[in-house]
Amino acid sequence: MNNKNSYNTKQKNMLADYLKSVSGKHVTVSDICEHFKEQGNPIGMTTVYRHLERMIKDGLVNKYIIDKNSPACFEYVSEEAHDDHNACFHCKCEKCGKLIHLHCGDLEALQKHLAVGHKFFLNPFKTVFYGLCDECYIKKL
Amino acid sequence: MNNKNSYNTKQKNMLADYLKSVSGKHVTVSDICEHFKEQGNPIGMTTVYRHLERMIKDGLVNKYIIDKNSPACFEYVSEEAHDDHNACFHCKCEKCGKLIHLHCGDLEALQKHLAVGHKFFLNPFKTVFYGLCDECYIKKL
DNA sequence: TTGCGTGCAAAGGTTTTGCATGGCA
DNA sequence: TGCCATGCAAAACCTTTGCACGCAA
Description:
2 copies of one chain form a homodimer.
Chain A: H1 10-21, H2 29-38, H3 45-57, E1 61-64, E2 73-76, E3 89-93, E4 99-102, H4 106-118, E5 120-122, E6 128-133, H5 134-140
Parallel strand pairs in A: 3-6
Antiparallel strand pairs in A: 1-2, 3-4
The structure holds a DNA duplex (25 and 25 nucleotides).
């Protein structure tokens, strides 16, 4: 489901294929560029940004902003994840920076509660839970 | 409850007073600098950043990153929100920017669930739920 | 007097924009 | 041929760092 005015180019297909191949992982723009450079098929950073922007608009890719001074992360939205029942939440450890993906039905209760009880419609793709992972939690004590 | 090695300076107090006076609102660093410039008591941007960084560490201020290309927002944490039994969660509308404060026992269940089920220890002061408020949700459709 | 605080200027890193060239249809 | 895509270089942006000077205790 592409935009009307769009051509099929080598870069566009390469990028889409790569993102699918690392589906479930978080990659940065420089990760992406690095990958293609190593492959011997470098893609300009600008091109990557512009394609990602489109794919975000089309709902094919999610963008996660963990921090202000680290690059944004991008993740391909798998087909299964497209229906709301598989929404993925993220937990970010404030100490070690570890990022935990949560595919957990229990969290849907939260979503429902917010919608029904507080008239707030949670966007799981933009929301990040901050806290401590177990390792850092133990160390802290 | 300040850090050990900290002095009381004019700028520090001015900043704290201002943040308290706009408690409940989100302000950016340039908002803050603008305010003091208009008052005839300009404060350096660097100083503001450095104080905010401390206050965040001390739990006096929350930092919200709405987007990559817009400045971070800061908000004073009210006294009542400080004790754990009144943990305050924030819902931020992505569209109109409205900030909703949640004092809700049900959300403590989420905290417990994350700790027990996923070994992740949520920091309610740093976590922001992003989504849409009811008004914007209706408009979107 | 000691050492933190201040703020200008410069650096740092990510993302966006301008523009000339290249490629799809 | 017409329009979009590409990617280099430069700009824009927020934030951090270096450093000399100022001020609290």
